[in-house]
Amino acid sequence: MTSIDKLIANTIREDVRAGHIYNVPDSSGYIKLDAMENPYQLPDALRAELAQRLADAVLNRYPVPSYSGIKERIRAKLGVPAGFDVILGNGSDEIISILCTATARQDKRAVVLAPIPAFVMFQRSAQFAGMDFVGVPLKADFSLDRAAMLAAIAEHKPSLVFLAYPNNPTGNLYDEADMVAIIEALGENGIVVADEAYHPFARTSFMDKLPQYPNLVVMRTLSKLGLAGIRLGYLAAAPALLEQFDKVRPPYNVNVLTQVVAEFALDHVEVLDEQAARLNEARTELAAAMAALPGVTVFPSSANFITLRVPDAEKTCAKLFAERVLIKNLSRMHELLANCIRVTVSTPEENSVFLNALKASLQA
Ligand code: PMP
């Protein structure tokens, strides 16, 4: 053992030493359909105007931590009910981590519960905060197993339940009555996080239910709307609850450049909404084209990606990779996803490159 190995063994947590880095493949030279990004930039005229705003940004000072400019716009434009507020995160990834840090109690090991397969950061953040993660499998059609969820809630008494609406990696919206049953079963004993990362595409939301359920919070992001590069997520909830989360939020967690871009983009949010509407149309076309292919099952999606089952996911991914198209092979994530792949909906040109390579992989 070298001295650095000894240092690591003596200092770094065992579960971290045994773990792995969140893998993001190098995508240069590839058509990138693996990360649910919006393929469109802001129009040139807006980018020129934004460049001027960025040139004027105050970079020698820390950001003003109230973030009132962004918060006002989010409250006004994104449907936050009167009497509710938001906190901001460096992506919703950071919000997930803040939620876990605030609920990881020291007097007992707290539990995070989520249906699986789910967004991997729910489990990773729970683990890093020293919490137990309980995953309850979805049904084969990816709907919530309400009875199993309610039984798991009774048994494990989770502090936090994450419900992605729509879910990643399956793309579907859960049944609203199933979600409400979970929120009501938890009541004062647990917080339900409606993770609405794909809200720009789903256009349905639990936001307007905030006044009805004190244990409900709604998490969203600007990433999928077309601003993945600026890393801005937000959490809407009752101010008293937000105050608790705000205590564990790192200071200045949203930087000045993000602040400038977010305020500007929210002033022009209709442009981003129009891009999302275009992607929804492309999703309908791409899903229909894939469903017509022999041996392919396309699952319903309310997000900007489509999950499908192919005869041989390894072979399809290898063919797509050879054609320089990056998608996500979901096969190893969960048994419900055997031979499933996930593709982000993109421009008509990129969708057609993907579709042709997919067809070729099915023939060869
Ligand atoms: N929630 C879900 C369901 C997601 O799929 C993602 C990103 N893939 C996130 C949260 C995190 O988004 P971000 O950190 O970019 O805001």
Question: Which ligands occur here?
Answer: 4'-deoxy-4'-aminopyridoxal-5'-phosphate
Q: Give the CATH class of the largest domain.
A: Alpha Beta
The CATH superfamily of the largest domain turns out to be: Type I PLP-dependent aspartate aminotransferase-like (Major domain)
**Which radius of gyration do the C-alpha atoms yield?**
21 Å
Quaternary structure annotation: single chain
CATH fold type of the largest domain: Aspartate Aminotransferase, domain 2
- Count up the helices: 15
Strand content: 15-25%
Largest sheet: 7 strands, mixed
> What structural class do you assign from the helix and strand content?
alpha/beta
Gross CATH architecture of the largest domain = 3-Layer(aba) Sandwich
Order of helices and strands: HHEHHEHEHEHEHEHEHEHHHEEHEEEH
Mean pLDDT across the residues is: 97
What is the topological layout?
Layout: H1 3-11, H2 14-18, E1 31-32, H3 44-55, H4 68-77, E2 85-89, H5 91-103, E3 111-116, H6 120-128, E4 132-137, H7 146-156, E5 160-164, H8 176-186, E6 191-195, H9 199-202, E7 216-221, H10 223-227, E8 233-237, H11 239-248, H12 256-267, H13 269-291, E9 297-298, E10 305-309, H14 313-322, E11 325-326, E12 328-329, E13 340-344, H15 348-363
Parallel strand pairs: 1-11, 3-4, 3-5, 5-6, 6-7
Antiparallel strand pairs: 2-8, 7-8, 9-10, 10-13, 12-13
